[in-house]
Amino acid sequence: ATDGSGGFTPSPCALSGSGASATCSVTYTPSAVGDGTHLITATYAGNSNFRASSASQTVTVNKIATTVSITNSPVTYNDSPQPATVVGSVPGTVSDIKYNGSTTVRTGAGTYAVTADFVPTDPNYAGLSDASAGNFVINKANPDCSSIAGYNIVYDGTYHPASGSCQGVGNDGTLATLNLGPTTHLFVGTYTNDVWYFNDVTGNYNDATGFVSSTITKADPDCSSIAGDNVTYDDWPHTA
Q1: Helices assigned H by DSSP within the chain
Q2: What global pTM score does this model have?
Q3: pLDDT of 173-202, one tens digit each?
């Protein structure tokens, strides 16, 4: 018998043995696990040689352990707060999600240790408080540097670099720092595969590099000031 709710298999339990010792074994299955103790009692009715007797044993019935985990990691930086999606190993309610100990949902790229509370729907499962759900990772985004282009100009005596910029996501706009120095030229020529560099200073973007080709063509000289002359013969050569 039990003071809790549950059943025994087999029941009753038939003793077997020899001499003055007889035993039997049963399996106790609680119908509601709960968390605590069940008092199990065995009673022997006795016979012509042995008196009746009973004894009891306390059995501790623990709730089934649960876990919490993150289902949407990693994500990519998008200039907006991105919450971790935390679920329990069984149906229930997740609450008090924290990132490195703070409830603030994170925006910037990085790795954040996530903890959460969990209350299972089924009372036979154990709840959790500030349990580790793993790491939530926000990966760096790639900058959009597609506008960077070389040039095709006529020589004008000044230095020229490639043009364009690297753009971020969301409201980040134009990003620093873009180095177009290796694409800068002064003299006539064709310059192929000039390299540019983007080095992120925000921590939210991957560094980037790329190539452009440029051409500076020869300029036409301005000879518009050349003019002939209109003079009276004076026995001397004259030039324009």
Answers
A1: none
A2: 0.78
A3: 999 999 999 999 999 999 999 999 999 999
Beta strands in 100-207 (DSSP E): 110-120, 128-139, 152-154, 178-179, 189-198
Q: 144 has which bridge partners?
A: 167
What is the CB neighbour count within 10 angstroms for residue 219? 12
- Euclidean distance between CA atoms 199 and 21, whole angstroms: 84
Task: Report helix, strand or coil for 226.
Answer: coil
What is the distance between the alpha carbons of residues 155 and 240, in angstroms, rounded to a whole number? Answer: 28
The Cα–Cα gap between 190 and 150 comes to 11
Nearest CA-CA partner of 92 in 135, 122, 132:
122
Neighbours of 157 (CB within 10 A): 7
Cα(149)–Cα(224) distance, integer angstroms: 34
Kindly report, residue by residue over 127-139, the tens digit of the pLDDT.
999 999 999 999 9
Cβ within 8 Å of residue 225, ≥6 positions away: none
Q: Among 22-36, 112-126, 183-197, whose mean pLDDT is lowest?
A: 22-36
The two most distant CA atoms of the chain are separated, in Å, by 167
Phi, psi of 182 (to 5 degrees): -65, -10
Do the Cβ atoms of 53 and 44 come closer than 8 Å?
Answer: yes
